[in-house]
Amino acid sequence: TPMQNDLEEFYSMV
Amino acid sequence: MLELRLVQGSLLKKVLDAMRELVNDANFDCSATGFSLQAMDSSHVALVALLLRSEGFEHYRCDRNLSMGMNLNNMSKMLRCAGNDDIITIKADDGTDSVTFMFESPNQDKIADFEMKLMDIDSEHLGIPDAEYQAIVRMPSSEFARICKDLSSIGDTVVISVTKEGVKFSTAGDIGTANIVCRQNKTVDKPEEATIIEMQEPVSLTFALRYLNSFTKATPLSDTVTISLSSELPVVVEYKIAEMGYIRYYLAPKIEE
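^ inputs. structure came back:
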């Protein structure tokens, strides 16, 4: 099964 | 001092139903712009962003920016006590640790107020830059909900592929496979029944169906849903809330190992 990405891989914390 | 009066109180109930499967606790932010929220699910895979613009309220008073931490299940318990035709007013005083929901029946013969304790929540806001999406699909929200529900009985993940021919939803599981293709269809009697595909280039991404099914809890808020896709970006699933704003869900794609 494919690995699940994390949102923080794409967007940075502000 | 905060006082927000929403004539269509049932809308707030629907908004809560659209979020509470994904998020337990969240900060509601009130500013001159409106009543908004951004919260991630506990696994940091999905995010929900809500905006109800101030112009959409019959009365909107927010003297200074205020962030109110609420448990969404508790909030839902209170809002369930409002009648579907009730007018809902949200009130809070500066520096207090509670919020009051006031419910008024349409003919003003019943007025109730429910006070709920607020909570301190460490808010983690993500900065989401504007992006150009390779494909944007607009389709009836009920159709999207049906597809996600049907496919989740076959598999755990869905591959969403957009080509010139249409948008394809595919899954595979132990019992077999399924493919559903929705072609662009602009020639319908009602615009909300159309499927419209704006494609810059073909795109194909894999997502967990469990989260997409949670997003479809927003179906009662809008007749249509917009799905924005780009390779190597989270999908954005947006339900517009008529004359008020939107609820948007972001979901990170799955990647092949």
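Chain B touches chain A through 25 residues (CB under 8 Å). The mean pLDDT of chain B is 95.
thumbs up if we can close this ticket
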